[in-house]
Amino acid sequence: MATEISPRLTAIVEALPLRPGLRVLEIGCGPGVAARAVARRIGGGHVLGIDRSAKAIAQAVAGSGAEIAAGRLRFRRVAVEDFELQEGEQPYDIAFAVRVGALDGRHPELERAALDRIARALVKGGRLFLDGGDPLRERALRSPGDCAAPLRDGRMLRRTQT
Ligand SMILES: C[S@@+](CC[C@H](N)C(=O)[O-])C[C@H]1O[C@@H](n2cnc3c(N)ncnc32)[C@H](O)[C@@H]1O
Question: Which pTM value belongs to this model?
């Protein structure tokens, strides 16, 4: 897996509605390329990257020493369908996933389980962004209070229902 950020991943990171102080969850972070780029854009916020692959998490940790040391980034090996907040862990404002099979529509049962876990890990009004839009699409979650706002630079999101 690539460890340098691609133009496509850069566009995705730039399209996320990031701001200082946000808590961001990346699902299927692979070697942590996007998670690192997000961590650099959220000031004193925090990013958690999760992946079911131990190899991916090892690569992500190995490549993220500075961000981890600064307390801006962590990684955890867990499948999204099993993910839950740990004791004392604050919920996340935004979640995103890029090229993750559990959320690409091909596995409806797995996707339902994943969406349920993501909704539980987000604040009320928390938002989930997936690739496959322009460049992102927002996936509506069960919880009330979700709002569809334009992305940065005026790009709009395509919304799909659970
Ligand atoms: C194609 S890679 C994409 C990595 C990164 N998002 C990117 O775009 O560069 C898919 C990643 O999602 C992870 N993944 C697949 N299914 C998952 C699941 N159910 N829960 C967590 N991670 C998963 C894989 O282990 C892999 O690292």
Answer: 0.90
**Ligand 1 centre and the CA of 114: distance in Å?**
13
pLDDT at 126 over 70: yes
**What residues does each domain of the chain span?**
7-155
CATH topology of domain 7-155: Rossmann fold (3.40.50)
Cβ 49 vs Cβ 75: under 8 Å: yes
Q: By alpha-carbon position, which residue is closest to atom 24 of ligand 1?
A: 28
Do the Cβ atoms of 38 and 106 come closer than 8 Å? no
- CA 109–ligand 1 middle distance (angstroms): 17
d(CA 45, CA 40): 9
pLDDT at 157 over 50: no
List ligand 1's pocket residues with C-beta within 6 A. 27-30, 33, 50-53, 56, 79-81, 98-102
